[in-house]
Amino acid sequence: MKVGQLCVISLAVRDIAAATLRGDSERDLAVLYYPKYTGDFNTGYCTSQNTGSGQGYSTELACCKAYFGGQASGFCYSKLPNPPTVSPTANGGGLDVWYPDYKSPFETATCINDGPLPNGIPTYDSMLACCKAAYLGQTSGACLAALPSPPTVSPTGAGGLDIWYADYNLDWTKGTCINKAPIPNGRQTYDSQLACCKAAYNGQASGACLSDLPSPPTVSPTGAGGLNVWYADYDLDWTKGTCINKAPIPNGRQTYDSQLACCKGAYNGQASGTCLSDLPSAPTASPIGASSKFFPIWSGWETGHCDNDPTKITSGNTYFYDTQAECCDAWFKEQASNACLRFDPTYGSRSPTQAPVL
Fold this sequence. Notes:
The protein is α+β, with helices and mostly antiparallel strands. It has helices at residues 3-22, 60-68, 75-78, 127-134, 142-145, 193-200, 208-211, 259-266, 274-277, 324-331, 339-342; strands at residues 34-36, 45-47, 99-100, 111-112, 165-166, 177-178, 231-232, 243-244, 295-297, 305-307.
């Protein structure tokens, strides 16, 4: 490289350095600001000199916010060319961020903006945001009450909270939803008494929770003294089973909105039609005959067969087929005796698609 070229490069570097120092606005130079730690957090500030103490920021303000945002002294901000005006949010001057006062008990604690900011504590842009995040579920309402303009809370009962929860101190059959303070630890809460009853006491045969509502819903019983839900009466043999709405509902029993829905869900395929015939307006059923469904009768592998006589259905048998051949193929396909296909069904004749009887 020639001496002349070296001189040109040296002059260019010198000009850039000089422009940087004097803040030359005519040059598009990227100046970064870095934190300057002095040993005391409250006297730290940001500088354009890379001290190797952290990431650089494009503006001095951004650097102050990132590294000295909780600085009670405000020293970093005071060194800016045009220091921002900080409006104290509390008497005596406070930070422009809020944080929970974990030194106080949860039920009496509030959010504060006193300096210095404790290390590692979450901060919020407003006192309200802090209360909502850090003291959600605080039954005393101490944090919200400390706001300059506390929100108006409309109690849903005498001296009550605006949220509801299940009162598990009572027996479940007599349980209701309440809004008394304090809320038990870990208890699920709901926006309304009705929502609480539906979630926490769904299927409550006594209806105690719903009856405790200010305007209880009108429940039209579907039978004398009956509930408004139906369930299968498994005390009876399946072939004779019906759906009932008597209280109390057995524990864990599936319920349905109507008697018809229960029959369809719990007694689908019931050849006797007992459940459907018990409906107030029973549907017209086809007489038992050639159209009856086939079902397996297990009397041993080589003697097992399929029939369509509903009186022979065993309790719990819910497997039904349109033809004898389908039933035999499903249950006794590899039967060496061919007893299933040899069997003469009670109604109709053997399946025309069966193999010849040997």
